[in-house]
Amino acid sequence: MPSILIADDNPEMLETLERIFALYEFDVHKAENGKQAVEIAEKELPDLVILDAKMPVMDGFEACRILKNGRNTRDIPVVFLTANYIQPNDRVTGLQLGADDYLLKPFNSKELVARVKSIIKRNEILRMLKDENHRLAETTKKIKRELKAFLEHNQAVSENPMIDHLTGLYNFNFFKIRLKEEIQISARYKAEFGLAVVLIENFDQINEVLGHQLGNYILMKMANFLLTKTRKADVLARSGEGLFYILMPHTDAEGAYIESERIRVVLSTTDYLDEEILETLHPGKRKISELQNLVVKVGVVAATTEQLQKETVDSLLQRLSRCLDIAREKNYSVTIAENKIEEE
């Protein structure tokens, strides 16, 4: 039985909503203000929270902000249901805080329940994919070995300082540490390596049209592809929305380009939204179709044995950034390798 938390300072509205969702076999929790809603959500961890925007003690906006910043509550979907804040900028505020929907009173009870069910179902799919990515990352021998080596030289903290919590890939800070190590190792053994940055262009538009939850879903599917399709020796990281880095040890310039181009083609042609997900979407079919095939820009550089003695993390990333800047000038998916720029 799905559980739902409803927060509204109007007793009659609270009772009405409780009856509606109880009729559809929801386990209903109630709160009379935002402060109560936060306390109950932290204790009960419901499948979804409905917030009135205007409430005493603490309004719905502040309650949403606290929930989305809470370690245990940030993944709980939030829906605003209000009769007070009805201007477009109010809706934008709610969605920017992380809400999944912003609905106005009066409402149609069947439509409200259907929308809530679809959001909960979508969130369950996201959670399953997120768990799958984390399991895959944790079971990879390479990651386990590097985690152990890194933690031996750094104090452990309550949350893993190296892993991006959404995708299970490394975060960018750790990636730079690993890149510095690779420069030293490759210089010592006179080996080359490749470096790529992958940009999903206009990712803000994806979030705007599909919502942040489905944007996260697409990011996790991309990360899942990268984890399963790249070599075990490769090092993967996420840096911000729609930006991934790949370190390819023992790979020359041509090999790095070929591998990056293969990744670009697959990422830009993969259908990320299956039928089950599409059933939960409300944007028009044309908008969804426009976003099905993503525009992917890739920059690629290689560190040769001659360069490694003077190469630094910053210099490599600057070279990589220049390649990506050239790629971003194109209005289509493209891979720009440093050694092929003249051909472009």
Low-confidence stretches: 153-158
What is the helical fraction, as a range of percent? Answer: 40-55%
Distance between the termini: 58 Å
β-strand number: 11
Query: Spatial order of the strands in the main sheet?
Result: 6-8-9-7-10-11
Number of helices: 13
**What profile does the largest beta sheet have?**
6 strands, mixed
Structural class given helices, strands, pairing?
alpha/beta
Question: Please, what is the average pLDDT?
Answer: 84
Beta-strand proportion? 15-25%
Q: What is the CA-based Rg, rounded?
A: 23 Å
**Morphology call:** elongated
Listing every helix as H and every strand as E from the N terminus to the C terminus, the arrangement reads EHEHEHEHEHHEHEHHEEHHHEHE
Describe the structure.
The chain has 344 residues and is of the alpha/beta class. The chain has 13 helices and eleven strands. Helix content is 51%, strand content 16%. It has helices at 11-23, 34-44, 60-69, 88-96, 109-139, 141-152, 172-189, 203-210, 212-229, 253-269, 275-278, 285-292, 313-328; strands at 3-7, 27-31, 48-51, 78-82, 101-104, 170-171, 193-200, 235-238, 243-249, 296-303, 334-337. The protein is elongated and about 75 Å long. A six-stranded mixed β-sheet has the order 6-8-9-7-10-11, with helices on both faces. Strands 2-1-3-4-5 form a five-stranded parallel β-sheet, sandwiched between helices.
